[in-house]
Amino acid sequence: TIEEAEAIFRASGEQSKLALLAARRSSTVALVSCGSFLDIAHGTVAPSTGRVRGFALVPYETGMLLRFGRNGGQTHLPPLRPQPKLFAAYRETRRWNEVLGVANVGSLNRMCLSGEISDLIRIAEGFQEKKIAAIADAIAAQAGRVRLVLVAGPSSSGKTTFIRRLGIQLRVNGIEPVGLSLDNYFVDRDRTPPGDDGKPDYEALEALDLELFNTHLAALLRGEVVEMPRYDFVHGRRAEPDRWTRQQLLPSQVLLVEGIHGLNHRLTAAVPESAKYRVFISALTQLTLDDHNRIFTSDARLLRRIVRDRLFRGHPATRTLEMWDNVRRGEARGIFPFQEEADVIFNSALVYEPAVLRVWAERFLLEVPREHPAYTEAYRLLKFLSWFVPVSEKGVPQISLLREFIGGSAFQE
Known about the structure:
With 413 residues, this protein is an alpha/beta fold. Helices cover 38% and strands 15% of the residues.
């Protein structure tokens, strides 16, 4: 029972688990054990420690890093590639959460129930705005030298809203951003490289006309007038030249380019490195369930995407869940290997967002039929969401990155 679990964790001084159980509506909770150690069962566990092979626990920065092979039986792990910028972003967010008093879900639930959530939302949003302003200030400090701002990040990171808000802060600094869409530089569909499933892989770098894109970039940075192409997605080819548009970059302007390959040097090989400013954006949640159970950063993005796909694209959760592995593979190939190339990493995670997303995501996940292959994953996410006290979206500002996924954004056209 909940009372028995609370007695166990009270005796061992597990305050984060007591806080988590405080808002639990069920009368029982499942526990798991390893020797004399007891913990809340948040997911599938191995039946014995003998099943756990091919892992390493190594010191890293101020903590420990758990490493393991992808297939579970891999004994020789690849060399560790340090990621100091990503670690710094994690550490900053973790420290900020602790200052706010919301390092775990139990403390977030307590704020929701006490009525403090409105203040928390405003502070979290203010922190993000301050970070965006700092990025714009850094670009402005290099005005005249930086002419190309590249924004890259995995799916559902909030890139669209981030770019709009960054554009506002650049204008505050007297810099006018000019957007350049990579979508217009796709090669014709019959030249698009196939993916593992045999279908056109539009996320491959080779799906873009790199030669034309770099030619246009170089010309724009020289101040020349360029005829910008348009891509016809219906027919899968470049539109006729009479539909192209003219573009010229003025001295007071910077090019703003968003795309999954923004951090890859091959995308902008014609532009000197000194003229580029790279931003990596992702939802790097540092909220934990309790002191022993973390929240997967990919889950935060998946929940965003489930809600957005259902609300604005008419896609049921089954379709989003079915596609997610392919999306993750594309990110692992085209985005994450380059994240340390960024000049700055922006964390788009909002500490309160799972409580708001639950209002929609729970219903959409309940629509997944029990016999569907995606049901196991849907059930796992439902169990995860059940730990959060739901929060109304009414207090979420219209310029919030979260509005990109739940609607009501001031930037929606």
